[in-house]
């Protein structure tokens, strides 16, 4: 009997601990998803780059900070929606690369990240990208078709959302995931995915797109967002679409794959031009 009681007590303790863990993860899941930093590691001027500080007002009165990297040799601008951690200063190398590769670039911080005001939320991030697009149209004179949405990791959901709302020129998804519930199943298999109150449904957004060039980029050695997510997104996308296999892990694939990025960015811009020409001819 004592042995049985001990086993029952042990099981009850384990069950209680598991329940407490689930409650903790449910109540504080925003802290697991959003990992903003307010300190800028480096600014464009400190990196000897030409960029303009921009401030963007959202529809709910938040103020977003970003950097605009102009390139007068092109009509296109890449709008970079970054991942869930850090801020735009962690992505300045990507902005520099894109600018030197032949496009203008706007990188911006979501609400609660970097110098931007407010607190992050899924709905808030969608409001942020809407404000960014409207800013580029009203203040910089870009048409929607001149904008290429580029989303890394969590930013893939934000960029793909924008592609469903605006007539953008193209969409690039770099190391993006299908949705939050799928990520919970991958990273925390002991946690029921239905407890996730966030969606970030990148796959669902992608399925809604048609006649827009889509490029999916993912590394088979990404240990945070498995390449199966990238393949699922590619399967969900309509033509014209391209899948690009990168090198490196989730956080270093850019530096490990610069040559691949360069090669396929040029091809993607040509794809956008061809799609635009085809659309004009059909009209």
UniProtKB/TrEMBL annotation:
The chain crosses the membrane at residues 7-28. Residues 75-187 form the Serine aminopeptidase S33 domain. Pfam families: Hydrolase_4. It comes from the Bacteria. Keywords: Membrane, Transmembrane, Transmembrane helix. This is Lysophospholipase. It comes from Rhodohalobacter sulfatireducens. The lineage of its organism: Bacteria, Pseudomonadati, Balneolota, Balneolia, Balneolales.
